Amino acid sequence: MLHGKRVKVPQWIHSAKCAIHVEVDAVIPDEDPSEPCFEPKAVKFMDELQRLANEGRVDELAKHGEVYVRRAG
User: Fold this and answer.
1) How many CB atoms within 10 Å of residue 62?
2) What is the full DSSP assignment across 12-67?
3) What is the pLDDT of residue 44?
4) What is the per-residue pLDDT for 73?
5) Residue 48's pLDDT band (cuts 50, 70, 90)
6) Separation of alpha carbons 50 and 44, rounded Å
7) What are phi and psi of 40, to 5 degrees?
8) What is d(CA 41, CA 1) in angstroms, rounded to the nearest whole number?
C-alpha cells in the first residue's frame, strides 16, 4: 500500500461500443507527489470496466459512472 494523500482521479474508459467517465481512487505518494498513482485494486477495477465496455454492458457500467453509447450510422 502506498502512503500519501488519497484522491479521486477522473478517468475515461472507452471501446468501439461505448465510453464511461469514472472517478478512480488514487494516491499522491509522499515520496514523489508529482502525479497520482493507482494501486493494484484500482487497476483491476479499471480493467473490469474495460472488459464491460468492450462487451457493451451499458447497464453494469452505469452503476459506476456516466456512460456514453455510440450510435449506429
Assistant:
1) 12
2) EEE-SSEEEEEEEEEEEESS-TTS-B--HHHHHHHHHHHHHHHHT-HHHHTTTSEE
3) 98
4) 63
5) very high
6) 10
7) -50, -40
8) 10
